[in-house]
Structure formats: C-alpha cells, structure tokens
Amino acid sequence: MTTSAQSAPGLPLDMIIFGGMGDLAVRKLLPALYMAHLHGNLPPGTRIVSTGRQEFDRAAYLAFVEEKSRPFIADANFADEAWRGFLQLLEFVRVDVQQDDLAALAAASRAGAERVFYLATAPSLFTTICDKLAAAGLVDRHARVVLEKPLGRDLASAVEINEAVGRHFAESQIYRIDHYLGKETVQNLMVLRFGNSILEPLWRAPNISSVQITVAEEVGVGSRAGFYDSAGAMRDMVQNHLLQLLCIVAMEPPTSLAPDAVRDEKLKVLRSLRRFNLATIARDTVRGQYTRGVSGNQEVQGYLEEPNVPAGSATETFVALRAFIDTWRWSKVPFYLRTGKRMGRRSSKIVIEFANPPFSLFPEYQHGGAANRLVIELQPEEAIKLQLMAKEPGSGMHMQQVALNLDLQSAFSQRRAEAYERLLIDVVRGRLTHFMRRDELEAAWEWADPIIDGWSTLAEQPRPYAAGTWGPPESFALLARDGASWVE
Ligand code: BG6
After folding, report:
1. Using CA atoms, how far apart are residues 422 and 183, in angstroms rounded to an integer?
2. Any known ligand binding at 236?
3. What are the Glucose-6-phosphate dehydrogenase C-terminal domain coordinates in residue numbering (predicted)?
4. How far apart are CA 157 and CA 274, in angstroms?
5. Are 76 and 82 a contacting pair, CB within 8 Å?
6. Nearest atom (ligand 1) to Cα of 219
7. Fewer CB near the last or first residue (10 Å), C or N of the chain?
8. Angle value at C-alpha 327, between 321 and 329, nearest 5 degrees
9. For strand 318-323 and strand 335-340, is the pairing parallel, antiparallel, or unpaired?
C-alpha cells in the first residue's frame, strides 16, 4: 500500500532541479513554477535550486532564465512584480553529477527543509544522482524524487532504474511523471466516467463496439532526433501516454481517488492487455515514417532529412494498432490506438463507438459506421460530443447524425493550468494519484516489449506517409477490415 510521502506543513521547500539548464527545465518546469508562484501555490519560503555543469554564478543564471524561460510565459500571464519575486526564489549550484559529489548542493541546502528532487536529465544519470544524493545525506523521509520519462527503453532497463531509485527512496516518495495525466482534459475523463451514472451501464461490451484513441501531432521531430531516433513513437508515446489514456477509459471504478485505489485499477487493465505475437504484430500493427510533405501550409522535410537522423533510419514516427483487453467488460472490443508526428493537424481524441440498434426500423437509411458515438476531444479543443441519430425534416423517415455538443471551454471560464504546473503542485502537496507506480510502468513495458522486438524479428520497415496526412494507408486498412474507420 502506497500512501503519499507526508508533505510536512510548516517546513520550507527546496525544489532542486537536476538538468536545470536543459530544455525541459527552461521551457516547461520554470514557467510552470512561475505560474504556481503567481497563483500563490508554492508554500512560503520555497526555493528553487537549479543545478548544471556551467560555470554560472547566480546573476548569470538569472540572466539565462530571463532570456530562455521568459518567452515561454504567455503575455497574459506575465506580471512584472510576480516575475521579479519568482527570480528571487532561484538559486544555482554548479555540479557535474558524473564527476562531483553533491557536497556543494548539500552546503546550499537548508537544514530541515523539505526537499523535492526533480531529475530532468537523461535517465542514464538517475542511478548516479540518487546514489550521490543519499551519500550527501540529502534523502530523508520527507524527500521526494520526480522522474521524467523516458523511464527506460524496455522492461529490463526500467527495472534497473526502479531498483536504483528504490534503494534510496520508498515508493511513496517517487513521482513518475506522465504529463498526460496532468492535462485538465485527461483528468476530466475520470469525472466524465465516474461522476456520472448514465454512462456506466453502457460502458462495456457488447454496448460498445470499439474504442479509438488518437494522439496526432502536427510537429515533426524538430531538434530531438538524438533522443527520438533511438526511441520511436512506440516508446515515446504509446508505451506511456496512449496506454495511460486507455487505462482511464477501460479501468473499473476505483473505490476512491487515493493513489493506490486508482493505480490498482489501471494496473489491472495493463495486465489484461492481450499480448501480441508475431502473427498479430504483422496483422494488427502498423509502423510509419513521415516523408516530405505539406504541414501547416508549409512544405516540410521528411524524417530522414531532419537534422541528426541517421541515414536510412527505420525508426517509426507513427504507430497504429488494434489491441484487446481480455476482461469480462471489454471482451472482443477492439481498442484502436494511433499516434504520429507530422500528421494532418494536432488533434487528440477518444472515440467510443456504441453498437448499432439490433434491428433497423429505417431500412432505407444506409449509413457507414456507428449511429451513436461519444467523441471526447482532448486537445487542442476540449469538447465532448454525443452523436445521435435524428430525423431529417421533411416527408419520409430520413435520418442524420447530429451531435449534442458540450464545449468545455465556454462552459468554464476558469484558467486552465498547464499539465506541468498542475503536476508540480501535486508533488509539492504530496499527492501521488496522477503519477505512475512502479508496477504500472513495468506492466506497460511488458506489453510493449514484444511488439518492439517483434518488429525487429520481422524486419518490419516503416510505411511511408507524407507529412501533413493521417498516416500510411495500412492504418486505414487496419480498421476497414473490421468495417470501421478512423474518426478525424
Ligand atoms: C512527449 C514526447 O512526451 O509528449 C514528445 O516525448 C511529444 O515527442 C509530446 O511531442 C506531446 O505532448 P503534448 O502535450 O504536446 O501532446
């Protein structure tokens, strides 16, 4: 049983960021911490201590943050006084974690402070950092550690990281981030499912005929090929973000929102995912790679032409697959998952297709696909649409699909915090519910590993798709075989 590490009221907080000069810290973490500060969500006396290898003094670091992080704060959220107040919280400690011990960090750390260590570095440094933190006497029972993905590249490496971190931190002190779990829309999925009673009786086979989960990105690999080429879309997106979405759609109602109550249910889903074998990999999965095309009205290059992509790379930038969850609730219901870079546009959505009426009173009406669909749009817009059949005005009984449309943007005027801001506040307050537990992470790899290995055994080459399209034709064929089609 994991209960959150107690955040001790009254203790000052030291948030220590390893990789404090890296992309993630600069673009996401510091702006998110600024927003938390702006809205009074950091405890009084908080300090943010960034570490890095550069020979910076504090003034140079502040200038760096001003230059690099400030542009990632929307003008509407920028308040000069709050920003200056935020900079006051920042410290910089020069550390080369591979070479040095952490004496300098220990010296800068306040005795009796509650410490949060954010490891925004390559995972290959996690073990070293945790060992050195412990050796410097910085890990006590109030300490928390936040681990960024990728958490391993397969089950074996994930276990290794978990073991290494687990030598010094109890599970209740470990926050494994999947930023999708911090998105407002994803958290709202839990409310949609478990805050309403009308959906639950329908939320199962045979009432649901299929589920689609799409996370389409418009961006390409950008400058991240160094990391991305050795990962690919399966490790970068499916093993974590898409599986977490699938878990929330498919899980049984938890008994409470306590971290273990929720994570136990997600774990059951992951363990019930049907394992792939070579035959089902060949039949039910599609890998793709973008080629030159037009995206956002601009001509863009193909993956192989992007900077730092090795010649002839066979890394996938797109995955589509058909998965099954072998439980009573989901027996025989296909879950179609799809994600890719450089697709038609940025669009993440979940589509629940309900079974058609068993007998049609309106035989002249031929429509493709399901009569009723629940479409949950996660980004960029947040909306929930329930498609129903309605009579077309006029003589005869002609039907058409119409949507009951809930626009959450206009339903709520409140500000929507970014995922990182929300998750960082959870860490500060010691709330673990929206973080992955060790067994969940490992179960996700147990499912993903055979697919990745199978692709290599089968020497599966990624299928080309032009940038700006919805993936290779094989992805459409995957659904067409079942008489289904992707909902764009
Ligand atoms: C990250 C992946 O985890 O998620 C990136 O590493 C991807 O490749 C990003 O672009 C997508 O996140 P979002 O919030 O933009 O949907």
Report:
1. 8
2. yes
3. 190-486
4. 22
5. no
6. 10
7. N
8. 95
9. antiparallel
Give ligand 1 pocket residues (Cβ under 6 A): 217, 236
CA of 197 to the centre of ligand 1 (A): 33
Closest CA to 318 of 293, 296, 338, 336: 338
Query: From CA 23, how far away is CA 26, in angstroms rounded?
Result: 5
pLDDT band with cut points at 50, 70 and 90 for residue 365: low
* Protein residue with least CA distance to atom 5, ligand 1: 236
Residue 348: closest CA among 153, 189, 177, 150: 189
Class of domain 181-418+433-480: alpha beta
Beta strands of 269-346 (E only): which ranges? 285-291, 293-295, 298-300, 318-323, 335-340
CA distances from 431 to 255, 351, 479 (A): 17, 30, 39
- Strands (E) in 217-327, as ranges, are 285-291, 293-295, 298-300, 318-323
Six token digits for residue 43: 């405890």
Between the alpha carbon of residue 76 and those of residues 30, 71, 79, 415, the distances in Å are 17, 12, 8, 11
Q: Give the model confidence (pLDDT) of 431-442 as tens digits.
A: 999 999 999 999
* pLDDT in the model for residue 111: 85
Q: To 5 degrees, how large is the angle CA 264–CA 266–CA 271?
A: 95
The CATH number that domain 13-176 falls under is 3.40.50.720
pLDDT tens digit sequence for 172-188: 999 999 999 999 989 99
The residue whose CA is least distant from atom 6 of ligand 1 is: 236
Pairing of strands 114-119, 13-18: parallel
Every domain of the chain and the residues it spans: 13-176, 181-418+433-480
Question: Residue 71 and residue 59: Cα distance in Å, rounded?
Answer: 19
Task: Report which protein residue has its CA nearest ligand 1's atom 15.
Answer: 217
Q: Which two three-digit tokens encode residue 253? A: 């109602």
pTM of the model: 0.94
| Distance in Å from the first CA to the final CA of the chain | 41
Phi, psi dihedral angles at 300 (to 5 degrees): -130, 155
Calpha distance 150→102 (Å, rounded): 24
Residues carrying an active site annotation = 241
Cα separation of 154 and 137, whole Å? 31
168 is in an annotated binding site: no
Residue among 469, 216, 439 at smallest CA distance from 337 = 216
